[in-house]
Amino acid sequence: MQINVTTIRVGNILEVDGALWRVMKTKHVTPGKGVACMQVEMRNIESGTKTNKRFNSTERVERVTLSQRKMQFLYADGDDYHFMDMETYDQITLGRNMLENALPYLLPEMEVIVEFHEDRPLNVQLPQTVVLEVVECEASIKGQTATGSYKPGKLETGASIMVPPYLEAGTKIRVNTETGEFVERA
Are 88 and 79 in contact (CB under 8 A)? Predict the structure, then answer.
């Protein structure tokens, strides 16, 4: 399916120069002079190599059509992550490199969408937001305002996050899985 490069999102699988690439980062660049472009950081699915490619904003690229299956994350075993199909109860194992964007938010029993290309798993899509517990953060400072200032915290998955000063360890929060930012108290 041909799409305009300005609609490319992190996690998309693109076919560029005959190879499949997973989009890692995107940035829309608008220079003061000249044509706007999309700066895309991609990882080759076969070889694992990364590349940065700049597309003219009027270009179109081939987005690979993937079939989606609802799966449940079961457990991690070293660098292997095990998932179960919610309909057939079949299990698959995915490597750490395939899940690098999802790892900071992945908990056992979480339901995700696994995308397949010709029966080969390529990508894992998380829900837009997930509820995680803050296990560690600095104590709030008396008199500190609630707006504009954030303090570092650590989630139960080990990921770091900036949280408002009024939050304490043990609080459950909603986190945006695309940006990694605090959304609200859960």
Answer: no
